Amino acid sequence: DIGMSHASNRGAIEALEDGIATSVSIMMPCPWVPEFAEYLKKHPDTCAGLHLTMTSEWDYYRWGPVAGKPAVPGLVDPMGCLWDGNGLVYDHATPDEAEAEIRAQIDRSLTMGIQPTHLDSHMGTLFYNPEYFERYMKVGIEKQIPILMAKEFDAEAAEKVWKAGLPVLDYIFADTYDWKTTEKSPLYIDYLKNLKPGITEIIMHCTKPNDVIPIITGNRDHLYGDLYAMVDPEVKKVVEEEGIILTNWREIAERRKNAE
Predict the structure, then answer these.
(1) Any alpha helices (H) in the chain, and if so which ranges?
(2) Does the residue 1 lie in any domain?
(3) Does residue 78 lie within any of the structural domains?
(4) What is the pLDDT of residues 140-151, one digit of tens each?
(5) Considering the entire predicted model, what is its pTM?
């Protein structure tokens, strides 16, 4: 959730610099994107993609679409912000509007000098509706930007993306929202010890503790726990002992180009 808050940015930076994180994803509609854009200018080798954002889920900390209400009226709620849940997005916004917002977020990224290494989807909005997923896949292929998807979820779509010259993951793991802060490192260690052969993306929301995050969300333990796990020497030790190769989106995109 890069750009969502100062705490999100600082947590991601710490996970990258002091931990084993390898890639991050930016929420372009959010107010703290400029801070991370400045970081990227100083650290251009950072693997940063876009966390394509169609929702604004918090009660009092909100954001609207990058494309603007006149271009995507169906994505906008009565407060002038993005809807707070996927179902509401699907009820009100057309796939055309979703595609327009995808393109607007990519355009803002490029305007700020950020060439995204990959695309994924905040809250999975672009994954859980087939028509939205088609637009997400269409734009990624058209612009030759790798998209987050995995063979385990849709083998047919994965083959289409691969044939278009983009990399495809084997597995995605993000089911850690109910893990308590103190449990996260041991549970991640257990997961790492049981990884299947192939390319797996483990999704985390590393967040630096501060006084603002508890006001925004009550789910702070989950957010803090991810950061603690990423910088935990025991987690890094298991990665080394298990012979797990850490990679990032830029590297797997390059490997895909060389695979022919």
Answers:
(1) 6-18, 33-42, 86-92, 95-111, 130-143, 155-163, 181-193, 213-216, 220-230, 233-241, 249-257
(2) no
(3) yes
(4) 999 999 999 999
(5) 0.96
